[in-house]
Specification:
Radius of gyration: 22 Å
Low-confidence stretches: 1-35, 305-310
Oligomer: single chain
Order of helices and strands: HHHHHHHHHHHHHHHH
Largest sheet: none
Shape: globular
Number of helices: 16
Distance between the termini: 44 Å
Length: about 425
């Protein structure tokens, strides 16, 4: 496998961009590039002038990508209404605005191409805006509901992780796929998508091609699941909101993809609970990265005589990588919701009507931010790069996706 030559912004086969374009569980927060001296700054004399100058420079850098993703999010909503209500005459549009936003983004990226001007803003959407949108979902649940969903999701999460790692490792040996690449696909499929691939690749000292191919496979099949699993789940579980949420939260790879699928299901079937359960379940999965990655690292160090003799340290993940900040924000806002729901007046001073309006507004903001982030996924996906993968990684990725989905379905059906 040779390293791809094209280093432009895309999800597939570009290790230089991987750290920026994923669901970011456990990856250090995005920081804009530090510039020694911006054009025109030498004419400024005070620190606050320079600070404002840099702020406007940052705003100008981020605006194109963020505005384009937001326009797609808004356009998806209007286009959904026009197609479903105006054109087809349904009382409620059967076309998902999230799906339309992603499809428009994919068309723009792969037909017209996307100038580099939009890159930084799209990265911001896929890091900060996605995280904020997921964290705000905490306001829709009480802290007790979060704990209950997490406990109910735990056996399904553990089962999916165990089955995926064991089966995919065996299947990789069967088709002579490099063992580390198979492990990256297994971990990415079962835990938390692209971030797990990056963390596992670093821990096992995988080369650049293996990480790139792992990211491409996870992104491809996770995106397919984003489009199809909401409808499949509705059929499999006969519209049971909790079962659908558990399935979406365990069977789909990346946080952005889970959020998109849960949002599609909520908007299409009018089921907010499914999105809440899916998001909570996905956050439970993310925590397991702090357990599985060190174990994977130790396994490969024992297999590799050179690494073993060098006595390299095991790359344990620190608490901020195992428990990302947006998960903490999600739980904290759930605690705020719990406190606010106590008594006749939230916090003893806020009128109940104002509290309900605030929660409704927060829900709308969360939906808009998540839709914006999902639109950015479409804008950052270059599907033409898939031809460089070869059949073996694609076969393993497909098998892993089917296996995890089937395991999730069986466990959810049997346990709940």
């Amino acid at each position: 496998m040779s390293a791809p030559a094209n280093r432009q912004f895309n999800i597939f086969l570009d290790p230089a961009e991987i750290q920026s374009l994923n669901s970011m569980e456990g990856v250090p927060d995005y920081e804009p590039v530090t510039i020694e001296a911006l054009p025109g700054e030498r004419y400024l004399t005070t620190s606050w002038q320079k600070l404002l100058h840099r702020g406007f420079n940052w705003l100008g850098t981020m605006s194109p990508g963020v505005v384009l993703a937001m326009l797609l999010a808004v356009s998806g909503g209007y286009l959904s209404q026009w197609i479903g209500v105006t054109l087809l005459g349904f009382p409620r549009s059967p076309v998902s605005p999230v799906l339309l936003a992603v499809l428009i983004g994919l068309i723009i990226r792969n037909v017209a191409g996307l100038p580099k001007t939009y890159e930084e803003g799209l990265r911001l959407c896929l890091r900060r805006i996605l995280r904020i949108g997921v964290a705000i979902l905490g306001l829709k649940l009480s802290i007790s509901a979060v704990g209950m969903i997490g406990l109910r999701a735990l056996p399904v999460v553990i089962g999916c992780i165990a089955v995926a790692i064991l089966f995919v490792s065996w299947l990789s040996r069967l088709v002579n796929l490099p063992a580390r690449l198979g492990s990256l696909i297994a971990v990415g499929t079962s835990i938390c998508g692209v971030t797990a691939v990056i963390a596992a690749g670093t821990a096992t000292r995988a080369d650049e091609d293996e990480i790139s191919y792992g990211v491409a496979v996870i992104t491809l099949f996770g995106t397919i699941a984003l489009f199809t699993y909401p409808f499949l789940a509705h059929w499999l579980f006969d519209g049971n909101a909790e079962q659908v949420g558990l399935f979406l939260g365990t069977a789909i790879h990346d946080t952005s993809q889970v959020a998109g699928a849960g949002l599609m299901y909520q908007l299409y079937y009018d089921s907010p609970l499914s999105l809440e359960v899916a998001a909570t379940t996905k956050l439970v999965r993310n925590v397991f990265m702090g357990i599985v990655i060190p174990i994977l690292a130790m396994t490969y160090q024992r297999r590799n005589a050179v690494v073993k003799s060098a006595k390299l340290p095991i790359p344990w993940l620190n608490w901020s990588q195992s428990v990302p900040m947006f998960l903490i924000g999600f739980v904290a806002l759930a605690a705020v919701r719990s406190i606010g729901d106590i008594g006749e007046k939230p916090f003893g001073i806020i009128p109940i009507e104002a509290w309900k309006e605030f929660l409704s507004f927060a829900s709308s903001v969360s939906i808009f931010l998540l839709t914006t982030a999902i639109a950015a996924v479409g804008l950052g996906t270059n599907i033409t790069k898939l031809k460089a993968l070869g059949w073996k990684p694609l076969f393993i990725g497909l098998a892993a996706a089917i296996l995890v989905g089937a395991t999730s379905y069986v466990l959810v059906t049997l346990l709940y």
